[in-house]
Amino acid sequence: MTSRRTFMGQSAAAASALAFPLVGGAQPKPIKVGVLHPVTGALAYSGQQCRMGALMAIEDINKAGGIKSLGGAKIEAMLGDAQSSPQAGTAEIEKMNEAGVSAVVGAFASAICLATTQAAAKYNLPHVVDVGVADQIVERGLKNTFRFGPGYKKCAEVAVSSLHVLNTAAGKPARTVMIVHEESLFGTGTANLLAKELPGYGYEVKEIIKHANPTRDFNNIALRIKQVNPDILIPANYYNEYALLVRTLQQQKITPKAIYSVLGGAASSYKFVKEFPEAANGIIDCNHWFNPKDKRSAELKKRVEAQGQFFSYEVFMTYTAMMLLADAIERAKSTDRAAIIDALASSKFANHIMPYGPTNFVNGQNMGAQPLMTQVHKGDIKVIVPRDYREIDPIFPLKG
Question: Contact at 8 Å (CB) between 207 and 185?
Fold first, then answer.
């Protein structure tokens, strides 16, 4: 016959073992997650912003008790530098795999993400893409790859249809378009999609100009824009080139009816708006943006600014991508890569600051993801489209 004391002792021991196999009250083993971004090289600013977003998310997850289904296990970042090149990104994936990470979040640029997701697929290593917009990333049937944000096809469609609505409401003052884009997968892919979409809405694409990364002088391109004289200029570039292009136009007094960016590297950047308020004024951008009606967005923005940094799309996209991963690990109740992939694939993650609604992955793409249209107004960035998130009425065209 089992005494009450013995029975109680056995039950407590069994419950403890079931909950989490801790030895002598030790903390559960941390969960290693790769945080991979280009923190040196041409894309260093964006990569550093992404890394900050990831680390802030990890701090918040750990402060809130870690992964509760794994006994409060904390997430531990393994930092990687893709050095602004796909090859370096791939080498970092190899190191992370060797180190036994359970998943990777990154790697900002489309060309780098294309390489890192492929490298991670060899090891069935879950890879959450934070920003990379090239649709090829999720079109290769890689079961390990999940992109939380929208791809450039979605962004181009939203941008062109929104442009048509704004232009029609203004009496169709704009008919001609010129596209200036950076040379990599992101810029070239975006430009090709726009060139395909715009004629269907009655716009004539006068010229498409490609430039190198980095480009330190836009005088010749500005001169060409002046000659062609398009109603609308559409830039698709990373931060440095975007800022320099727009400043060059300002210096040369070239004023299209609208600068209408699609995934413009600086167009919806508080850094750009603060440093070059006149050049930035009135610019419209179709880009990744947070839900301005969610008070957590403002709280996160304050925290970033308290560190002397700008609240850029890289920060909140990577912050949310890490939160998505933590939610999947919580539901997987495991650090096993296959279990995490299954949990990501069935994700309905909705507790976030993006204007997406619940997550729904189809072939690795979150189908609910959407960009917002913003406009620089009075030294701030405000949402103009869609109406559900609108903060101000759009001003279009800027120049009559």
Answer: no
Smallest CA-to-CA distance from 178 within 303, 262, 269 is with 262
Q: Does 324 share its domain with 347?
A: yes
**Same domain, residue pair 144 and 199:** no
What is the tens place of the pLDDT at every residue in 320-379? 999 999 999 999 999 999 999 999 999 999 999 999 989 999 999 999 999 999 999 999
> What pTM does this model have?
0.91
β-strand partners of 75: 31
Q: Are residues 202 and 112 located together in one domain of the fold?
A: no
Range of the domain at 231: 153-287+373-389
Q: Is the Cβ–Cβ distance between 36 and 93 less than 8 Å?
A: yes
Return d(Cα 242, Cα 47) in angstroms, integer.
16
CA distance 246 to 259: 9
Cis peptide before 371 (omega within 30 of 0): no
Beta strands in the chain (DSSP E): 31-37, 75-81, 103-106, 127-129, 145-147, 176-182, 204-211, 232-236, 258-262, 284-287, 361-362, 365-366, 372-377, 380-385
Residue 165: CATH number of its domain: 3.40.50.2300
Q: Is residue 202 located within the same domain as residue 258?
A: yes
Q: How many domains does the chain have?
A: 2
